[in-house]
């Protein structure tokens, strides 16, 4: 039996199994088996050179990277051209785009790499078409735009989500708060610092047995599920924010548009007629969670035209220095900061100081 067949068999068994207290153990076990098989599939595809086909090796550049994922002909290339000015072939037939085409979206002084990708269809994660490579690129992005065609079935959204999930991508989700430490001996210790009624000890032990883990400490710090635990054990999950871009709204009625409006993380647009693209760019900016830091050379005005762009999660003075130049932190003495992150303007701060959007920084070096 091939890995794909084994996966299909387990998925079928999961469909047959009713979800209740008595079967949660069995379902947890099936999910663990499934996760292992999917990992095998991903590993084998990357060994066979799955990610290295021509046109897919676009190197990272700029301050952040966005990937556009969607079915064929939903308007990804049209959107790339409108947002970045880069030409990517647009046509009414499916699979017009066959490689990865990068453009640069400039906003608030940031240079954001936007990737146009071939359309994916169902079964991508199982090796159909170029889907595997497309999703491998998606794993490297800071934001995913799932581009949908408002005139086509909304089940496409679910299908794409499932494809991405199968490749270890978790959309708009934080890593589950589960502490997991493997040990050499001592058996399995389970503690709970948060209620987690959906995941009982028996299921946890079954999953661990499936992974042949006999000694470890587990602490549940959130309302975890069996899938969360598997994600933590597998360890290679990518937690990526996602916007659902509903394109071609020029082709549907207002009533239809109102129904679509209920989808979370959603932006309606018409790429072709350039409707609502400003709103899309604003939402992209919010979801990327970037901040702008202005540099101030001694005795000069800050340079407001060329901010240093940092991810909000990584925005200490050290991060700022590293973004400017690798060796900068070696000569660092202290920094002067003006702006929202300090009480006095300017204030002398050290390497660990946390910066905020639109702060002004002057680095003072050792002499
Ligand atoms: N009505 C309407 N048509 C659009 C819109 N955006 C794109 N299209 C049309 O949709 C068709 C497909 O557009 P593409 O940009 O090639 O779509 P794609 O997603 O890149 O397609 P593939 O590369 O084949 O996956 C073209 O005929 C476009 O003119 C839109 O906002 N409204
Ligand atoms: K097309
Ligand atoms: Mg295209």
TrEMBL record:
Any Pfam family the entry gives: MMR_HSR1
Keywords of the record: Cytoplasm, GTP-binding, Hydrolase, Magnesium, Metal-binding, Nucleotide-binding, Nucleus
PROSITE patterns reported for this sequence: G_OBG, GTP1_OBG, TGS
Record InterPro entries: DRG (IPR045001), G_OBG (IPR031167), GTP-bd (IPR006073), GTP-binding_2 (IPR031662), GTP1-OBG_CS (IPR006074), Small_GTP-bd (IPR005225), TGS (IPR004095)
Keyword Nucleotide-binding carried by entry: yes
Lineage of source species: Eukaryota, Sar, Alveolata, Ciliophora, Intramacronucleata
GO CC aspect terms: cytoplasm; nucleus
One Gene Ontology term from the biological process aspect of the record: positive regulation of microtubule polymerization
Domain TGS: 289-365
Residue ranges of every copy of the OBG-type G domain listed in the record: 64-289
Name of the protein in its database record: Developmentally-regulated GTP-binding protein 1
Record localization: Cytoplasm; Nucleus
GO molecular function list: cytoskeletal protein binding; GTP binding; GTPase activity; metal ion binding
Presence of the UniProt keyword Metal-binding in the record: yes
PANTHER family in alphabetical order: DEVELOPMENTALLY-REGULATED GTP-BINDING PROTEIN 2
């Amino acid at each position: 039996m091939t890995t794909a067949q084994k996966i299909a068999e387990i998925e079928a068994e999961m469909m047959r199994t009713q979800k209740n207290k008595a079967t949660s153990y069995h379902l947890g076990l099936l999910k663990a088996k499934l996760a292992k098989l999917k990992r095998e599939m991903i590993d084998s595809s990357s060994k066979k050179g799955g990610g290295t086909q021509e046109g897919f090796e676009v190197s990272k550049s700029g301050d952040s990277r966005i990937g556009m994922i969607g079915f064929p002909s939903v308007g990804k290339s049209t959107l790339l051209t409108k947002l970045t000015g880069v030409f990517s072939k647009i046509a009414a037939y499916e699979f017009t785009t066959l490689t990865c085409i990068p453009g640069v979206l400039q906003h608030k002084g940031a240079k954001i790499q936007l990737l146009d990708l071939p359309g994916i269809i169902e079964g991508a994660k199982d090796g159909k078409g170029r889907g595997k490579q497309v999703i491998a690129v998606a794993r490297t992005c800071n934001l995913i735009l799932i581009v949908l065609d408002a005139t086509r079935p909304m089940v496409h959204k679910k299908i794409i989500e499932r494809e991405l999930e199968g490749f270890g991508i978790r959309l708009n989700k934080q890593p589950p708060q589960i502490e997991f430490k493997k040990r050499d001996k001592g058996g399995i210790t389970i503690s709970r610092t948060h209620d987690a009624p959906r995941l009982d000890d028996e299921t946890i032990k079954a999953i661990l047995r499936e992974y042949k883990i006999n000694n470890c400490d587990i602490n549940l710090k959130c309302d975890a599920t069996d899938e969360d635990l598997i994600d933590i054990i597998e360890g290679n999950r990518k937690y990526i924010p996602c916007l659902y871009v509903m394109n071609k709204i020029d082709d549907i009625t207002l009533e239809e548009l109102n129904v679509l409006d209920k989808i979370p993380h959603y932006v309606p647009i018409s790429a072709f007629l350039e409707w609502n693209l400003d709103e899309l760019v604003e939402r992209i900016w919010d979801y990327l969670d970037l901040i702008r830091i202005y540099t101030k050379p001694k005795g000069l005005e800050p340079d407001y035209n060329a901010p240093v762009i940092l991810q909000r999660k990584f925005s200490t003075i050290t991060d700022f220095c590293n973004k400017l130049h690798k060796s900068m932190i070696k000569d660092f003495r202290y920094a002067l900061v003006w702006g929202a992150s300090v009480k006095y303007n300017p204030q002398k701060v050290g390497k660990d100081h946390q910066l905020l959007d639109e702060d002004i920084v002057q680095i003072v070096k050792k002499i």
